[in-house]
């Protein structure tokens, strides 16, 4: 089966920028106090549910995976880009990182207690996001939680320069109401929503959605 062009483009772009991307984020962590608070709340909910390990989907060089571990979670990362996975393994050799796509996760049904998709759904064409949300539901254990972060809006941007390199891929700003509805349609229950204003080099509002798979009290 021929791979969708957006996957090939996304992989190629992140393979190209992986080293410089990882170096920049190691010196300029982009998370704000509110972002970190959402990650901390997610971690506490997952620990309380006791539903299992956490998958950091679109993990890039592994920063968020490592942060989740620092919050007391058993975390592993999955990324489409082999170069990003290599950077993550080099930086955090004691953590697990695998190659994979959010539209077809190589994970068993109900096998993880939590999912973080930290700005990683933004390269998926909007018409395919229901597939991604269905995968979230499939691999989450009952009582598991998912935290999704993305740039708020309703537009497609074509990116041609990134981290000092020429690239070619699309990124989508997404409406929080729409993403929340997709999660609900996939069988998840919205728990918390945060929409904050842009900071530093950000140009638009940033959205964070926390949802839960029913099945445990």
Automatic annotation (TrEMBL):
Keyword Transferase: yes
TM region(s), chain numbering: none
Pfam families noted in UniProt: Methyltransf_25 (PF13649)
One biological process term in Gene Ontology: methylation
CDD domains for this protein: AdoMet_MTases
Keywords: Methyltransferase, Transferase
UniProt GO molecular function: methyltransferase activity
UniProt keyword annotation of Transferase present: yes
Domain of life: Bacteria
Residue ranges the record marks as coiled coil: none
Domain Methyltransferase: 54-144
PANTHER family: TRANS-ACONITATE 2-METHYLTRANSFERASE, TRANS-ACONITATE 2-METHYLTRANSFERASE-RELATED
Name assigned to this protein: Methyltransferase
Organism: Plantactinospora mayteni
Lineage: Bacteria, Bacillati, Actinomycetota, Actinomycetes, Micromonosporales
């Amino acid at each position: 089966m021929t791979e969708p062009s957006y996957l090939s483009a996304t992989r190629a772009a992140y393979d190209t920028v992986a080293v410089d991307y990882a170096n920049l984020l190691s010196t300029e962590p982009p998370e704000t106090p509110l972002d970190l608070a959402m990650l901390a709340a997610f971690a506490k909910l997952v620990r309380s549910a006791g539903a299992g390990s956490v998958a950091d989907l679109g993990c890039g060089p592994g920063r968020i995976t490592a942060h989740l571990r620092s919050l007391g979670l058993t975390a592993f990362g999955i990324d489409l880009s082999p170069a990003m996975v290599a950077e993550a393994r080099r930086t955090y050799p004691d953590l697990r990182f695998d190659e994979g796509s959010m539209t077809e996760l190589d994970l068993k049904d109900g096998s993880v207690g939590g999912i973080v998709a930290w700005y990683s759904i933004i390269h998926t064409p909007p018409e395919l996001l229901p597939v991604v949300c269905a995968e979230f539901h499939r691999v989450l254990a009952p009582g598991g939680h998912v935290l999704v972060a993305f740039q708020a809006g309703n537009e497609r941007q074509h990116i041609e320069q990134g981290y000092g390199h020429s690239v070619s891929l699309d990124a989508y700003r997404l409406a929080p109401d729409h993403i929340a509805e997709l999660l609900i349609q996939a069988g998840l229950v919205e728990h918390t929503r945060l929409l904050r204003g842009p900071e530093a080099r950000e140009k638009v509002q940033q959205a964070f959605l926390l949802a839960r798979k029913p099945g445990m009290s």
